[in-house]
Amino acid sequence: MSETTTDGTAPTATHPLVDGEVAPGCKKVDPIVVADGVIRQFGGLTAVDVEHVEIPRGAITALIGPNGAGKTTFFNLLTGFDRPNKGSWSFEGQSLAHVPSHKVARRGMVRTFQLTKSLGRLTVLQNMLLGARDQRGESFFAALVRPLWRAQEQSNTEKADSLLARFKLDTKREDYAASLSGGQRKLLEMARALMSDPTLVMLDEPMAGVNPALTQSLLDHVKGLKDDGMTVLFVEHDMHMVRHISDWVIVMAEGRIVAEGPPETIMQNQAVVDAYLGAHHDTDLGTLTNQQVAQIHEAAEEEVPVGLEASATETTTTDAPAEPGATAHDEEGKR
Ligand SMILES: Nc1ncnc2c1ncn2[C@@H]1O[C@H](COP(=O)(O)OP(=O)(O)OP(=O)(O)O)[C@@H](O)[C@H]1O
Predict the structure, then answer these.
(1) Nearest atom in ligand 1 to 70's CA
(2) Nearest residue by C-alpha to atom 12 in ligand 1
(3) Which domain holds residue 228?
(4) Low complexity composition bias: which ranges (predicted)?
(5) If you ran DSSP here, which 8-state letter would residue 175 be given?
(6) Looking at the domain assignment, is residue 10 inside a domain?
(7) Are 111 and 199 in contact (CB under 8 A)?
């Protein structure tokens, strides 16, 4: 959205989510996350160097950028899985610096995790129960009081079953998580995150490894989170997803926020799309010349294409099960 001017000056871009002008690091009307001066270095490499960024509440925000831009590292920092060298950030107005990841999750900021090998050896239901918050059985004294944890276990199981039905995974309840297809794993990761009733759901590449047949269902589930009042922040290379479901897009490159805007504006910025995310989205920014990088940064700030040549296409992914299908019962039967 932009205001037209009659005096010949450049139009000022505005947006209902933004307080003031649309620009990298712009203030939001109602931010749920605010980060300031967050720097993370690995040896001589500065992976994240975010001067200021705000995530709008109640919206779906995509965090995009080329491989190695610092997106995952920034996710890890926000959620307490990594510590920055410098910087401050808050969630719901409260500082999260020095708050460990499990406490961050308890406050309502939850991120999805790729299904690891060890979680693959648990059943779908067991994975769901791991996502529940404040499990009384984990506390030594409460664990001694059987009725207390039995009641909680029952309510967690009921909640897990209802989420599994919502994500159409109820028939897989007793299967080993490792036997799920790529798309089903993504659904399980999302369903597991919802076990703790989050306010903000952070999804790391929800489309990776998902068969096109499951794409629409996944998109609908993400939109459903917003319809249920949650805020969504996701990292994604799949431009179809970014274009179709995000309300806001933040572009990272070399650790910095280089552009922000609604998807239609960011997607029109051909330089950003081509250079960062087009057909060659696996190309590292390091393969561009310094002059090209400077042009991209300038264009991202001014939102004018600079005419770098590349074609933007959508990515296709696979959804094949990583391991042969087997249920917990099957395995037990073999023992
Ligand atoms: N633990 C680590 N030790 C050393 N370097 C790291 C570490 N984690 C990340 N990096 C480096 O920091 C930079 C940012 O990585 P990061 O994974 O955050 O990028 P990304 O934008 O998420 O990339 P991708 O889209 O490929 O997942 C990269 O150069 C990466 O090699």
Answers:
(1) 18
(2) 47
(3) 15-334
(4) 1-14, 309-327
(5) B
(6) no
(7) no
Structural tokens at position 251: 């572009």
Cβ neighbour number for residue 174 with a 10 Å cutoff: 14
- ipTM score: 0.97
* Residue among 8, 30, 4 nearest 17 (CA): 30
d(CA 167, CA 194): 11
pTM above 0.80, yes or no: no
- Walk along the chain (335 residues) and give the pLDDT tens digit of each residue: 544 445 555 556 889 999 999 999 999 999 999 999 999 999 999 999 999 999 999 999 999 988 899 999 999 999 999 999 999 999 999 999 889 988 898 899 999 876 666 688 899 999 999 888 765 545 555 555 566 667 778 889 999 999 999 999 999 999 999 999 888 989 999 999 999 999 999 998 888 888 888 888 889 999 999 999 999 999 988 888 898 899 999 999 899 998 999 998 888 876 676 656 544 444 333 334 444 445 544 544 443 333 332 333 333 334 444 433 444 444 433 33
Residue 247 sits in a domain whose CATH number is 3.40.50.300
Residue whose CA is at the smallest distance from ligand 1 atom 30: 68
Q: For residue 138, is it within any domain?
A: yes
Exposed e or buried b per residue across 39-58, where buried means at least 16 C-beta atoms within 10 angstroms of its C-beta: bbeeeeeebbbbeebbbbbe
Distance CA 53, CA 138 (A): 36
> Three-state SS for 294?
helix
CB of residue 217 inside a 6 A radius of ligand 1: no
Residue 280 is predicted with a pLDDT of: 46
82 lines ligand 1 (CB under 6 A): no
Burial of 211 (0-12, 13-18, 19+ CB in 10 A): middle
- Count up the domains in the chain and report the number: 1
State the sign of the Cα–Cα–Cα–Cα dihedral 171, 173, 175, 176.
Answer: positive
Atom 7 of ligand 1: nearest residue by CA position: 42
Q: What angle do CA 202, 203, 208 make, to 5 degrees?
A: 170
Asked whether residue 3 is domain-assigned, the answer is no
Confirm whether 8 is domain-assigned. Answer: no
Closest CA to 114 of 46, 26, 29, 210: 210
